[in-house]
Amino acid sequence: MGGGVVIRTRFTETFGITHPVVQGGMMWVGRAELAAAVSEAGGLGIITALTQPTPADLAAEIERARRLTDRPIGVNLTILPTISPPPYAEYVRAAIDSGITILETAGANPEPYLDLLKAHGVRVIHKCTSVRHAVKAERVGVDAVSIDGFECAGHPGEDDIGGLVLIPATADRITIPFIASGGIADGRGLAAALALGADGVNMGSRFLCSTESPVSDAVKQRIVEASELDTELIFRTLNNTARVASNEVSREVVRILDEGGDFASVRDLVAGARGRRVFDDGDLDAGIWSVGVVQGLIHDVPSAGDIVRRTVAEAEEVLRRRSSALLPV
What we know:
GO molecular function: nitronate monooxygenase activity
Protein name: Nitronate monooxygenase
Distance between the termini: 37 Å
Pfam families: NMO
InterPro entries: Aldolase_TIM (IPR013785), NMO (IPR004136)
Keywords: Flavoprotein, FMN, Monooxygenase, Oxidoreductase
Number of helices: 13
Order of helices and strands: HEHEHEHEHEHEHEHEHHEEHHH
Mean pLDDT: 96
């Protein structure tokens, strides 16, 4: 794998994978084919639990992935306070009963589920956007952290700290393995993350733009054509910042909120059903959809397996080349 290249880290050892490359748990995207392709190539593929309408559907999706690979696969569960929350505990139980041994949590504190998960041998990766949240995640007992820099797609938090500072700052404060997310699309990013103290990387937008990604080819082509300048930060005034693709809808949301609007004034524009139409139908202005500034580094639509293999091979080459530049004095 990886052209014969293997980079072993605390993360690969803890989670039983070959390469320190994780596919982000993206809503509507983290399905069986993509997750299995990443895992089969030696990385860690992630099925997004809430993409599935019910816990039973999640179990069926995990079974579909199992028919495609026998390598470790994770499940993402984003826990958010809502008026009518999904049955989170039932999704957790579906993952456990399906034999999942890796759960990626995001949003709220996963502590209420940790005893149950640990009792069934499930290791937990918790996504964080700040050092203080990573420290708390370690304290409550998660097995690893995924630290999201300001460059990331989706919700980067409110601190606006990029990976160049956030990664080493995290390395200075926690002892459990952690992976870096946001602004990473190739082996240069993996090599940089390792040099800054991370034990691997999480890539969302890069795997969104792969052949196994279950979204319209129009979305993938837009990512290839776009630059690092083509995203918008919405919900800034609501202290719930999200990074999404720049399109007619996201620019309108920014305008309304900047002029004093509240969430109710943009609710219809940001509805999840509209965003799903972008992915399903390829109507790029149907709604908002997440992508990171890293799209400026994405120039093709390869297979997920090729992404894993060439990322690791390129990282090895970067690290080898840089180390050879060190001269005795």
